[in-house]
Specification:
Elements (H helix, E strand, L loop, with lengths): L6 H27 L13 H50 L9 H22 L2 E2 L2 E2 L18 H7 L11 H4 L4 E2 L10 E4 L13 E4 L12 E5 L6 E8 L5 E4 L7 E4 L3 E4 L7 H4 L2 E4 L4 E4 L13 E5 L6 E8 L3 E4 L23 E3 L6 E4 L13 E5 L8 E8 L5 E4 L6 E2 L5 E3 L6 E4 L10 E6 L2 E5 L6 H14 L16 H14 L17 H37 L3 H27 L2 H4 L1
Antiparallel strand pairs: 1-2, 3-23, 4-5, 5-8, 6-7, 6-23, 7-8, 9-11, 10-13, 11-12, 12-15, 13-14, 14-15, 16-17, 16-21, 17-20, 18-19, 18-22, 19-20, 24-25
Helix pairs in contact: 1-10, 2-3, 2-8, 2-9, 3-7, 7-8
């Protein structure tokens, strides 16, 4: 053999060269990426600390980002509340001008009530503030518009709240009651009975009532306002005058005439006008069904104009204050607030005597019960109708109404019928009526608070919504002033209504700032005010800002430590790279020299 180098020595040299090449490549990659390694394995013993630092820094950055988002909401909320404070302050100043006076001038009252209603609308606008699709004052229902006053004009507002048949709620319990039902506790939708006169006597004063098949009215407050819908005859707005202990019957504030003939002793006094007596009209007759007061002397009641109010005294059953719906000078039709009998057990009787019903079994459609035009007009889909006395016993029973003919002449039912025509001795009844009862609460959100975590150890609880006493009291005060048309019994200028100004001022004071508990309108447990809300929101903003600053400082420190662990020292790497490059070149030269040696050359 002529060469000195052998296989073993060659492999050893190659191994050394590969190590140097690997080191050289690693150094080049470090210079390109500025990192010590491309994965955590390359960090070595510092890996655990590095991961911990990175996680902590990321958590702090998340807190900071969330705080920045929350700060936008808090800042916008603060701006809205500050604007609301200005609205309430401005309205209070306008109201205070009339507190020491008895406002009787129509223009003064008009300006004051227009200001009240406009202020309510402005409050609704700010309380419906939306940021990024999130409503700020609706609690956790951030996708729900929180405030809906339901009316867009002062005229419509005063039509609903006339101060006679319906008053704007005067307490929080009345104002904020939350009630919305369309079935009883057994989920039966035919659950209501409407009675026009609870004692059934048309010649005595009566009260209209609504009866539930189960105790669904327990949470209704006297003086609260609710709407009825989904009925055949009783849709409308009503005020609660009483609720029975069982929670099954609610009395409404009823305004209706009582049958009384030829009353000569009656005195009829137009609001703000001259009293009328028998010398003017001879006598008057009151009719409940028609809701009228009719004078014996033609055209003697012309001073009672439509939309005005009048007071009746000197009668046995019809003393009271009423609103004029229409008047031809002789017959005055009053604005009644009463119910129509509906859903009473065994009434109305839809078929008796000579009227017969036709039962049809339809193979390709729903079965049908046919009577005469308008016979079923009081029935709506979903009600249940009970038939008794049918010629064919298969048609006796309770049937669910699917649809009603436009002229009320027939109903289609869910169940199966037997084709037959009755003798006219049958009876069809609707035990109870369908309907929905909903309180007229302006707030549509919820009262749940939500938490915002500003840092690892600090959390803020956010619970300011549009039902807060700071806002509710102001809206209530404005509603109390806006109700009732000038010149009517519900008008603000009436002597009996002057207290509304003082009460409204008390509410506005409580809305603006914390007052002593001796305030006449104080309500225990509800103490927040606009002033306190602004202070709280400002504190929240300071807390989030301070936490964000602290979080950023700590995050920056941790990122520096992470950088020290992850990043290279370029000078050290370049120096090592050059040394490895020189060593590799020298190694290749040495290997080339060694491979060229032989025993011949050596000798």
């Amino acid at each position: 053999m002529s060469r000195i180098a052998n296989y073993a020595s060659q492999q050893s040299i190659n191994s050394y060269l590969l190590k140097v090449q690997t080191r050289l490549q690693d150094s080049q990659l470090q210079l390109a990426s500025k990192n010590k390694a491309q994965d955590y394995t390359g960090i070595g013993f510092d890996t655990q600390r590095l991961v911990s630092y990175e996680v902590n820094a990321s958590t702090l950055d998340n807190f900071t980002r969330n705080n920045n988002i929350s700060d936008v909401y808090i800042s916008t909320t603060t701006t809205s509340v500050t604007s609301l404070e200005t609205i309430v302050n401005d309205f209070r100043k306008e109201l205070a001008k009339n507190n020491t006076l008895t406002p009787t001038d129509a223009n003064v009252i008009r300006v004051l009530q227009e200001k009240a209603f406009a202020s309510m609308q402005s409050m609704g606008t700010y309380l419906n503030e939306n940021v990024g699709g999130r409503y700020l004052f609706s609690g956790n229902r951030t996708d729900t518009v929180p405030v809906d006053l339901g009316l867009t004009t002062l005229t419509a507002f005063q039509e609903k709240y006339d101060g006679v048949s319906i008053n704007y709620p005067t307490t929080r319990a009345k104002h904020m009651v939350n009630f919305d039902l369309s079935a009883d506790s057994a989920a039966q939708t035919n659950w209501l009975t409407f009675t026009q006169d609870s004692d059934g006597v048309t010649t005595t004063a009566g009260t209209s009532t609504i009866t539930s098949s189960t105790a669904q009215f327990s949470n209704m407050a006297v003086g609260s306002v609710f709407t009825v819908s989904g009925t055949a005859n009783n849709n409308g707005t009503y005020e609660v005058s009483a609720v029975n202990a069982a929670g099954t019957i609610v009395d409404i504030k009823t305004v209706m005439q009582t049958d009384e003939l030829n009353v000569a002793a009656a005195v009829v006094t137009p609001t703000g006008g001259t009293a009328l007596t028998s010398a003017d009209f001879t006598d008057v007759t009151f009719n409940r069904a028609a809701g009228t007061m009719v004078a014996a002397t033609a055209s003697s009641l012309t001073s009672l104009t439509a939309g005005s109010s009048f007071t009746v005294t000197g009668t046995a059953q019809n003393n009271g204050t009423f609103m004029v719906q229409s008047n031809d000078g002789t017959t005055v039709t009053i604005k009644q607030t009463k119910l129509t009998d509906e859903g009473t057990a065994l009434t109305p009787t839809l078929s008796t005597g000579a009227t017969s019903l036709t039962f049809t079994n339809n193979a390709a459609a729903n079965d049908r019960i046919t009577g005469v035009a308008s016979q079923f007009s009081a029935i709506t889909a979903g009600m249940q109708m009970t038939i008794t006395g049918a010629t064919n016993a298969g048609n006796n029973g309770t049937f669910t109404v699917l649809s009603v003919a436009s002229d009320g002449s027939y109903v289609d039912v869910l169940e199966t019928l037997v084709t037959d025509v009755t003798s006219g001795a049958e009876t069809a009844t609707v035990p109870r009526a369908d309907g929905r009862i909903k309180t007229s609460n302006y707030y549509n959100g919820d009262n749940f608070s939500h938490s915002h975590r500003v840092s690892e150890n600090e959390t803020l609880t956010l619970d300011l919504n549009a039902s807060d006493p700071a806002f509710e009291r102001a809206i209530r005060a404005m509603g109390m002033i806006a109700q009732g048309k000038f010149g009517t019994a519900g008008g603000l200028e009436q002597t009996g209504n002057n207290q509304r100004i003082t009460d409204a001022l008390n509410l506005l004071d409580l809305s603006l700032k914390p007052n002593a508990t001796t305030n006449p309108q104080y309500e225990a447990g509800f103490t927040n005010s606009l002033q306190q809300s602004i202070v709280t929101l400002t504190d929240y903003s300071i807390v989030t800002s301070r936490a964000s600053t602290s979080n950023k400082k700590l995050s920056d420190y941790l990122n520096v430590q992470v950088s020290k662990m992850e990043k290279i020292n370029e000078l050290d790497v370049v120096t090592g790279l050059l040394n490895d490059q020189n060593a590799l070149e020298a190694s290749y030269k040495a290997m080339a020299t060694i491979r060229g040696l032989s025993l011949v050359n050596y000798l």
